[in-house]
């Protein structure tokens, strides 16, 4: 699965073109944001991080918790 | 851009220039939408999480958050939250019945955690520097962390590169052992790239590596094993390695379909650490616009992990130096469907509700061979956000 994701990412990057600012209307839509609002993001991270071994990936410096 | 372009969101028309900038940056760390002609822009919101496990734990967490842009070159983001945890958590794994099972000892949890964080960013044309700090305090855990970040926009802001370094300095305690005050220190490194692929899609990929050293034991968990040829059982407290190196690779993709007025949201995370755990997370969502103000987003998240090298629900002989029967370190998979409904008013107001169900089970593990003693976890959660952009 890791190899498939790497190949998909490389294929996507190699196929990209330069998009001018006036062409970025769709990219400005709220549903095109790469993350939810800060409160929802924190709530979802809390929900899953407390029960799974994997964590992180989006940022650093967030600190930890007991989460027992 | 013409006002009649199909798919253009009328609620953001007045901030089109700023919204375009946000799309162009599209960073792992969210940037505030800058509105043309405005000296100060921002957003403030309150989010509440309610989480309930069947027969076990209940969590309530209100979060107050905000972000503001000042003089078009400064951005300040901050949040504060209170975690209220009640209920019970499995503390003992024992094979008294013949096979290992989790037991709740009867002691109930009543824990409150307060957290706060702030981040300040300064833009210098196509470059930006940021510094952040966070604090978290609860009865048995104290965390202090900070991070610095640099990012650069390239190729007419079609590409954004970001690099971060952060440190956490935590102290682990215990509500049943007042003498416990052990340190845990972590250094984190991040590198990410965001790339606009076309007018309709964008991708972000982030690699995070962390090195940690200190106390990782869970002070509340025990393993009790009976042997057929031994009168007395062996009782072992949760004992983990004193270090943990982790690698997480997160890739997010968004693709808009103008004919459907909807957007595909997909993300995949690969995780690996030196405890022997490898995990995969895949989430797919479809956000469907319903008229001018409403959107509905069904989503499905799948998670799978293998067991840590030192995970064992039964203590082997001879007794190893490290062992944990905490099922969060076992082999299992999880499925979580969710539904999000969003209402956006024309004046910056947003009300958004998310309802989700979580089921973690040994049988959901990719490829099978889930941990024998894993007790299926069933939980529901709800998230409500009310926010206002100004």
Task: Write a brief structural summary.
The complex is a heterodimer of chains A (68) and B (390). By secondary structure, chain A is mainly alpha-helical. By secondary structure, chain B is mainly β.
The geometry of chain A reads as flat
Oligomer: heterodimer
Proportion of residues in helical segments of chain B: under 10%
Share in β-strands of chain A: under 5%
The biggest beta sheet of chain A, please? none
Structural class of chain A: mainly alpha
Radius of gyration of chain B: 23 Å
Low-confidence stretches of chain B: 1-40
Strand content of chain B: over 45%
- Strand/helix succession of chain A: HH
Mean of the pLDDT scores of chain A?
Answer: 83
Largest sheet of chain B: 16 strands, antiparallel, barrel
Question: Can you give a write-up of this model?
Answer:
Chain A has helices spanning 2-14, 38-49. By secondary structure, chain A is mostly helical. The longest helix of chain A is centred in the first third of the chain and has 13 residues, at 2-14. Helices cover 3% and strands 60% of the residues of chain B. With 390 residues, chain B is mostly beta strands. Chain B is globular, with a radius of gyration of 23 Å. Chain B is built from one helix and 20 strands. Residues 1-40 of chain B have low confidence and may be disordered.
């Amino acid at each position: 699965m890791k190899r498939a994701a790497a190949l998909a990412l490389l294929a996507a990057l190699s196929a990209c073109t330069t998009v001018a600012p006036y062409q970025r209307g769709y990219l400005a839509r709220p549903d095109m944001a790469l993350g939810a609002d800060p409160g929802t993001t924190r709530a979802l991270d809390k929900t899953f991080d407390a029960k799974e071994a994997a964590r992180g990936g989006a940022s650093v410096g967030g600190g930890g918790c007991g989460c027992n | 851009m013409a006002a009649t372009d199909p798919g253009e969101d009328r609620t953001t028309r007045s901030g089109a220039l700023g919204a375009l900038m946000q799309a162009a940056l599209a960073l792992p760390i969210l940037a505030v939408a800058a509105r043309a002609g405005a000296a100060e822009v921002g957003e403030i919101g309150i989010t509440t999480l309610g989480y309930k496990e069947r027969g076990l734990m209940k969590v309530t967490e209100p979060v107050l958050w905000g972000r503001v842009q000042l003089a078009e070159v400064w951005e300040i983001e901050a949040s504060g939250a209170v975690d209220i945890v009640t209920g019970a958590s499995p503390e003992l794994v024992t094979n008294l019945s013949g096979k290992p099972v989790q037991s709740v000892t009867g002691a109930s949890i009543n824990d409150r955690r307060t957290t706060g964080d702030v981040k300040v960013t300064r833009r210098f044309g196509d470059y930006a520097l940021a510094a952040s700090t966070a604090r978290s305090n609860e009865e048995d855990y104290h965390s202090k962390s900070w991070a610095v970040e640099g990012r650069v926009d390239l190729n007419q802001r079609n590409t954004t590169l970001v690099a971060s370094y952060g440190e956490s300095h935590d102290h682990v305690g215990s509500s049943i052992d007042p003498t416990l005050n052990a340190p845990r220190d972590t250094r984190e490194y991040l590198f990410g790239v965001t790339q606009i692929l076309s007018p309709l899609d964008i991708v972000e990929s982030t690699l995070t590596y962390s090195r940690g050293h200190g106390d990782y034991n869970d002070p509340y968990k025990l393993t009790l094993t009976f042997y057929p040829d031994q009168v007395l059982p062996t009782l072992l407290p949760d004992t983990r390695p004193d270090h943990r190196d982790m690698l997480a690779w997160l890739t997010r993709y968004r693709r808009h379909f103008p004919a459907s007025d909807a957007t595909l949201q997909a993300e995949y995370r690969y995780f690996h650490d030196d405890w022997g755990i490898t995990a995969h997370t895949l989430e797919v969502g479809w956000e469907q616009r319903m008229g001018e103000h409403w959107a509905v987003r069904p989503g499905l998240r799948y998670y799978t992990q293998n067991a840590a090298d030192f995970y064992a629900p039964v203590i082997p002989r001879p007794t190893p130096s490290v062992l944990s029967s905490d099922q969060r370190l076992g082999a299992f998979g999880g499925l979580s469907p969710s539904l999000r409904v969003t209402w956006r008013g024309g004046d910056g107001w947003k009300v958004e509700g998310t309802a989700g169900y979580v089921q973690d089970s040994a049988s959901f593990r990719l490829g099978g061979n889930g941990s024998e003693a894993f007790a299926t976890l069933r939980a529901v959660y709800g998230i409500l956000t009310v926010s206002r952009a100004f």
